[in-house]
C-alpha cells in the first residue's frame, strides 16, 4: 500500500513552503488509496511546543488535509536507540569529539588546500583510552554514521537520475552529544518501520537522501521512492526563506485566503499544468502527477492567492458561506439576494462586512458639480422603498424621459449617488438590498 508522511517540527507555524511538501505527499496517498501519516518531529524538547502541535493540526484541518494517523517521534526514542545499537554492532556508527571551532578550522584548511570540506574521520583513529579522556574533558561526543565511499544513486520522481559520490559528503551526525536524536536517524527509522513508500520533500534534502539511503540499507529497510520538489522563491526570484515567517497559513487565513484557492495554487505551482481554481479536493487529487513538476526554482507571489480566492467564491452557493454572511450582520431573509449580489464583487469574505454596511446605512454620495441638479431631479422621481428587482429599470427609464439623459451620462451619476462608487454590482440586484438612500437627504 502507498504510504506517505508529512513530518513537521512543532517549533513554529506551518508556512507555504511546508504546505507544498504536505500537499504533495497527501495527494499521492489519496490518489493511490493509500495512507497519509502526520508525524510530529518533536525530538528537540527545548524548541518543540505543544501549542505548535495544535496549530499544525488546525492548519491542516482548515485546508482539508486529513491524516489517517498521528505519530510522535518523542514516543519512539526507544526505537531510535535500538537502531543506534545496531549501527554500532555492524561498525557503521562512531563517536567523535571535535568542537565546532575545531571543525571550522578543519574545513578552512581543506578549502585552502582545494579539497572538499569533508569530515576527515579523525575520530576513527582514537583509542579507547583517548575517548575516555575526551569524555572526561568535554562530555559525550556526537555519533556519526560511517558512509561507504561509493556512488549513491536513485531515480528521483522529479529530478530524474541522481548520483552522489559519498566520498564528497561528511559522515552525518545522527545523535548529538546531549543524546538528542537528529532528524536523519529518526526519519529513517520511522520511514522503515512505518512502511513509507513515497517521500516528497524540498530539493534542499537531496544530500540528506543520499546518506539516508545508505542508513536505510544498513538497517535492512526498503528504500522508498524519493522526489525532490523545487524550492520557492519570491516573485522576483529572491530567496523566500527570510519571508516565510510572514507567510504562515494562519496569516493567510486571517487575510481571507480560501483553502481551495491556496491548494489550487500549491498543487500546480512549478508544474507544467495551468493554475486554475478547483472546486474540491477530488479535482486536485485526480489531476495530480508529481512527474509533471520541474526542478527549477519556483516563483511564489502571495498576491496570486487573492484573484484565485475571488474566482473560487464566485462559484459558491449561499450554504457554503452562510456563516460568513450572518457574521457580516446580514438578516436571514436577505442572505440569499445579498450573497448573489456580493459574491461577484468581493475578493475575500472579509469584504462582506463593507457591502452590508453600504446596504444598511447607505453610501456617502459621490456627485460632481455638473451632476448635482440632475441627481436632485432624479431623487424626486425615486419611489419610496422597499425596492425590488425592477426598481432600477423603471426609475432610470423615468429619469431618462424627464431629463433626456441616456447611456453613461444617465447611469453613472445615479450609481455614484447611490453607492459612492463608479463601479460595482448590477444595480438591479443591489437596489432591493438598499435600506437607506443618503442622496435623498
TrEMBL record:
Q: What class of enzyme is it?
A: ligase
- List the InterPro entries hit by this protein, alphabetically: aa-tRNA-synth_I_cd-bd, aa-tRNA-synth_I_codon-bd_sub2, aa-tRNA-synth_I_CS, aa_tRNA-synth_I_cd-bd_sf, Glu-tRNA-ligase_bac/mito, Glu/Gln-tRNA-synth, Glu/Gln-tRNA-synth_Ib_cat-dom, GluQ/Sye
What UniProt keywords apply to this chain's record, in alphabetical order? Answer: Aminoacyl-tRNA synthetase, ATP-binding, Cytoplasm, Ligase, Nucleotide-binding, Protein biosynthesis
**Superkingdom assignment:** Bacteria
Q: Where does the protein end up? A: Cytoplasm
Single GO term (MF): ATP binding
GO cellular component term, pick one: cytosol
Name of this chain's protein: Glutamate--tRNA ligase
Source organism (scientific name):
Ruegeria intermedia
